[in-house]
Amino acid sequence: MQPPKHLYKVLAYNLWQASLGKDALILPPEDDAFIHLSTQEQLERILVKFWGNVRKYVVLKIDPKLLEGKLVFESNPGGKTLYYHLYAGRIPNKAVVECTTCARP
Question: CB within 8 A of 95, min separation 6: which ones?
Fold first, then answer.
């Protein structure tokens, strides 16, 4: 199955800032086993469920052709919804085609 033209990664603002000028994104411990990615259709649900109480974060639009590693479309452990997961890889900064900063007062 071919991934969509773009995938999305939500990242804490401080990790995004720390990633600037690096070869690849600096990711949180939750992405140690695999890197969580979502489609545009899944993005709003992810933002509400996991980022609703976060004051500042970024939404990164990613070109999946530039990812390094093995991209798999599968469910999370114990779940039924399919997501894109990147195994044994990283997200090079050159794969980020757009960055949107989201901030709440």
Answer: 62, 63, 64, 66, 67
Per-residue model confidence as pLDDT tens digits over 15-41: 999 999 999 999 999 999 999 999 999
Q: Domain range holding 95?
A: 7-103
Give pLDDT, residue 78: 85
Terminal-to-terminal C-alpha distance of the chain? 41
- The torsion defined by the Cα of 11, 70, 38 and 97, in degrees rounded to 10, comes to 60
Q: Return d(Cα 67, Cα 86) in angstroms, integer.
A: 8
Token duo for residue 24: 């690849």
The predicted-structure confidence for 45-54, as pLDDT tens digits, reads as follows: 999 999 999 9
How many domains does the chain contain in total?
1
The CA distance from 56 to 103, in Å, is 4
